[in-house]
């Protein structure tokens, strides 16, 4: 498997590593920037981003940052950005962007090569996986802001009442337990996840496929699509069976992340698949409290438990004037410094990208997603890295959704994808 176990946290020397403050990483960037810059980013539910931007603006006389709210769906955000880049727009100086974008944006000359600014010494303080996912053509194009891994959220209180002391280990077990708890305690939904036709649906579909040993691209030759395997079919069949068995509502085929929050945190579901951020929403508004929920790695298929690797990074717009690019770089350094990453993790339950924070007692105590991270992050699988990934993603989104809804059988969906993805892969610049 092309699994990349990227959380290499061992290195003892790290514990005492110097704080990565602005002053410590000023090198390589050249001039100080100034002016007003706009950063693009989608939905941030905890308010932590807004707070940090306000603090930065107060502390910095020369640079003022404005946040332009981009679509919460990463697929729509991408489309909007691509249109702006094609028009060589410099409206956004800085992009808080998805881990799947660097290859495509770099290959098209839309974002700045940050290899000199984001020096090797700085990079060594970050988790290896997120840095690798910003590396394309031997250059580094983005700075990892927070990382993401798919997690299983469960109602610890309901499980206990039905006599379960542990979360499910396999997808089959999840189905059995969900059915039991739904029946015992009259809970509306057993399991909800992101099944809509968009990028999140691709991640969820790939988690099933990968957990049964299916893969999209040949690990030794990325021009070869190998998705057509009994393993991939088994994965999609398991996803589909969540609806067939009545464990998931038919409506999961229209759910993205925001639609997952209300049913689970509103108390209507036993299990949910979502990213770490959702934890910080528990206990807010009418939602159930953090004491009622727990988090575990996703259940295993025949090849083990797999979490889709997500994450967000800072990319600088190549069409922006140099002075704005320098100003953006100052803000990037601020945002990824230890103090700010810590605040972001504690308030928003995001997974930091600095290794040192995984040993920080305050972070570990208040953010269970970080405590779980070594386990969940050890089994992350990245999506295919390719300058034509967005085209591949559109096809996967369509077929995974068709299979989930029962409009295509898992065999048909996988067979169609083999052909479509192979012809897209052949268009990729080598
Ligand atoms: C999360 C992940 C991102 C992924 C998206 C899908 O935001 O961090 O990588 O593409 O979800 O909805």
The counted number of beta strands is: 17
Full CATH superfamily name of the largest domain? Periplasmic binding protein-like II
Counting H and I runs of at least 4 residues, what is the number of helices?
Answer: 16
Mean pLDDT: 92
The radius of gyration is 21 Å
Coarse shape: globular
The portion of residues forming beta strands comes to 15-25%
CATH fold-level label of the largest domain? D-Maltodextrin-Binding Protein, domain 2
Largest sheet: 7 strands, mixed
Q: Which secondary-structure class do the elements indicate?
A: alpha/beta
Bound molecules: alpha-D-glucopyranose
CATH architecture heading of the largest domain: 3-Layer(aba) Sandwich
What is the count of structural domains? 2
Oligomer: single chain
C-alpha termini separation? 22 Å
In the predicted model, the low-confidence regions spanning at least 5 consecutive residues are 1-29
CATH class annotation of the largest domain: Alpha Beta
Helix content: 40-55%
Brief characterization of the structure:
The chain is of the alpha/beta class.
How would you portray this structure in words?
The protein is an alpha/beta fold and 430 residues long. It folds into 2 domains: 3-141 and 310-336, 3-Layer(aba) Sandwich (D-Maltodextrin-Binding Protein, domain 2), CATH 3.40.190.10; 149-306 and 385-425, D-Maltodextrin-Binding Protein, domain 2 (3-Layer(aba) Sandwich), CATH 3.40.190. It contains 16 helices and 17 strands. Helix 8 (199-211) crosses helix 9 (230-244), helix 8 (199-211) packs across helix 15 (389-405) and helix 9 crosses helix 16 (410-427). The longest helix is centred in the last third of the chain and has 18 residues, at 410-427. The two termini are 22 Å apart. Residues 1-29 have low confidence and may be disordered. The chain binds alpha-D-glucopyranose. Alpha-D-glucopyranose binds at residues 74, 98-100, 148, 199-200, 203, 257, 275, 310-312.
């Amino acid at each position: 498997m092309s699994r990349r176990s990227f959380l290499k946290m061992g290195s003892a020397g790290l514990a005492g590593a110097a704080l990565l403050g602005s002053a410590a990483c000023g090198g390589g960037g050249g001039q100080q920037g100034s002016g007003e810059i706009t950063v693009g980013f989608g939905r941030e539910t905890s308010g932590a981003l807004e707070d940090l931007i306000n603090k930065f603006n107060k502390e910095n006389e020369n640079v003022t940052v404005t946040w332009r709210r981009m679509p919460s769906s990463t697929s729509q955000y991408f489309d909007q950005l691509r249109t702006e880049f094609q028009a060589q727009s410099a409206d956004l100086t800085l992009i808080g962007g998805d881990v799947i974008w660097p290859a495509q944006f770099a290959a098209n000359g839309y974002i700045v090569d940050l290899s000199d600014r984001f020096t090797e010494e700085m990079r060594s303080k970050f988790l290896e996986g997120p840095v690798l996912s910003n590396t394309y053509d031997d250059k580094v194009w983005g700075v990892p802001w927070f990382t993401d891994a798919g997690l299983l959220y469960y109602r610890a209180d309901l499980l206990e009442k039905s006599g379960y002391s542990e979360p499910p280990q396999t997808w089959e077990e999840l189905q059995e337990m969900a059915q039991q708890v739904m029946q015992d305690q009259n809970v509306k939904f057993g399991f909800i996840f992101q099944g809509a036709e968009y990028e999140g649906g691709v991640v969820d579909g790939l988690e099933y496929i990968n957990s049964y040993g299916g893969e999209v691209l040949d690990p030794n030759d990325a021009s070869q699509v190998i998705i057509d395997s009994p393993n991939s079919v088994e994965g999609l069949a398991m996803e589909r069976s969540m609806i067939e068995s009545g464990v998931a509502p038919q409506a999961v085929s229209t759910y993205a992340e925001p639609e997952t929050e209300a049913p689970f945190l509103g108390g209507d579901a036993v299990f949910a698949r979502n990213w770490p951020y959702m934890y910080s929403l528990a206990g807010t508004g009418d939602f159930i409290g953090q004491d009622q929920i727990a988090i575990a790695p996703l259940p295993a298929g025949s090849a083990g438990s797999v979490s889709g690797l997500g994450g967000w990074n800072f990319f600088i717009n190549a069409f922006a004037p140099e002075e704005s690019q320098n100003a953006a770089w100052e803000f990037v350094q601020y945002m990824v410094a230890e103090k700010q990453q810590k605040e972001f993790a504690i308030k928003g339950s995001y997974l930091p990208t600095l290794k040192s924070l995984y040993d920080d007692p305050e972070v570990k105590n208040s953010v269970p997603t970080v405590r779980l991270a070594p386990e969940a992050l050890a089994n992350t699988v990245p999506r295919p890295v390719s300058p034509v990934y967005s085209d591949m993603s559109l096809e996967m989104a369509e077929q995974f959704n068709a299979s989930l809804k029962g409009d295509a059988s898992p065999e048909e969906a996988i067979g169609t994808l083999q052909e479509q993805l192979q012809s897209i892969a052949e268009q990729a610049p080598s």
